[in-house]
Amino acid sequence: MRPTARGEVDGRASGRTAIEAIGLGKRYRRRWALRDCTFRLPAGRICALVGPNGAGKSTLLSLASGLTRPSEGSVRVYGTAPGTAAGRPVLAHLAQDRPLYPALTVAETLRLGRALNPGRWSGRCAERIVRDGRIPLDARVATLSGGRRTRLALALAFAKRPELLLL
């Protein structure tokens, strides 16, 4: 798939909304990490979220993926609340810290990804990303370099075949 000059990836997705936030906010104790955030992201677009440290970028992605609950407002992903049974299959989120289980091998990690994503998992996709990165299947995640851990996390995210990928 190639994006057009306007960032559209799939013209058939026109009219659908990938993410919609209305008055979204997140407070940690007395400090607001994100406040009064309202936007609508059409499906089929590639979008970058930019801003200085502390602007709320990671918080917004955490809210959109359902890892964090908003303090105020709402967010919807393809019309459903993120983090719910209906919302989980359409979304993959690769957080900055690349949460992986260090005691597992690469092969065990891929099997876990398959078990957690029944019906949507593409083992061929995951294996190709791992193979192209020359990551040994028997290597423990704890022994992988940062770059290889990132590649493994990307393999998990892409193999889920999400409609929305948050990086």
TrEMBL record:
The keyword Lipoprotein does not apply. Keywords: ATP-binding, Nucleotide-binding, Transport. This is ABC transporter. One of its GO terms (molecular function) is ATP hydrolysis activity. It comes from the Bacteria. Residues 34-167 form the ABC transporter domain. InterPro entries: ABC_transporter-like_ATP-bd, ABC_Transporter_VariousFunc, P-loop_NTPase.
